[in-house]
Amino acid sequence: MNEKAAGNRGTMKAAVVTGAGQMQVDQVAIPQPKAGEILLRLEGTGVCASNLGPWSGPDWMKFPTEPGGLGHEGWGVIEARGDGVTDFAVGDRVAALSQHAYAAYDTVAADMAVRLPDTLAGKPFPGEPLGCAMNIFRRAEIEAGQTVAIIGIGFLGALLTQLASKAGARVIAISRRPFSLDFAKAMGAAEVIPMEDHWAIIEQVKQLTGGRFCDRVIEAVGKQWPLDLAGELTMERGRLIIAGYHQDGPRQVNMQMWNWRGLDVINAHERDPAIYVRGMREAVDAVVSGRLDPTPLYTHTYPLEELGTALNATRDRPDGFLKALVVPQ
Prior knowledge:
The chain is of the alpha/beta class and 329 residues long. Helices cover 29% and strands 27% of the residues. It has nine helices and 15 strands. The protein has helices spanning 52-55, 127-140, 155-166, 178-186, 198-208, 224-233, 255-261, 273-289, 307-316; strands at 11-19, 22-29, 37-46, 74-81, 93-96, 105-109, 113-115, 147-151, 170-175, 191-194, 214-219, 234-242, 264-267, 300-303, 324-327. Helix 2 (127-140) packs across helix 3 (155-166).
């Protein structure tokens, strides 16, 4: 029998999305870890913008979701181990790449979890988005002395601002919200520009860079206009990194300009779970070493029963909002 499994055959709270913009919290059976899995007692999970598509109720979406479904940024304490799990012990605190984290418990393959050291005790750690930032940063190949424009200062853009500035790059942060620009300054941005007028932004960046434009440009919005802007701001033989999640249809690009400037274009999204986990490990190291401090970016926390409010805030981005966390207790 799985360790502690007999004590876990009760029920738990789990959020279920029942329709477009509708959710409820049900009592369901606590899952049991299979061979190679661990059972997490979740402390919380981050709310990801990728949930907004399903939350809007598109034709392809099937309701209701599985209990806890859509949640994939969870962290917590190992409550039980399935057969064959030797790398973790009951009581270890971990971040995990699971798929049902909008709940009080979730099971996950042991190789999709990363141990959190004691120095992070009591601190939230949504491993998936933190690992995503590390993966994007690695593929951007940012070095000291470069000029880096980051378009879109949400949670991801703020993390990348901090990483790039700590690496010795000069960061130009571009975002539509004054609050986000203030945060970018706090994260180390050398210059901030309101994302208002396309051609005015181009001219301002041109002046700031002596006409060279930027060695690296990271697009972190996921919309057509910021993608257009990103290409315009990238210098000849520079690198354009697409970090925005473009989930609402096809895009057009100015291939003539991209060709003329000889841009390297990097789609910085990963799908290999092992690469995600590597990024999560790198995020742990970055936070412990002080290269990354995500704590100020967790601006809103909601109980599980208010997941709908958290998703709406993630969509509407009220003033002062960067990242929502949901906690089951």
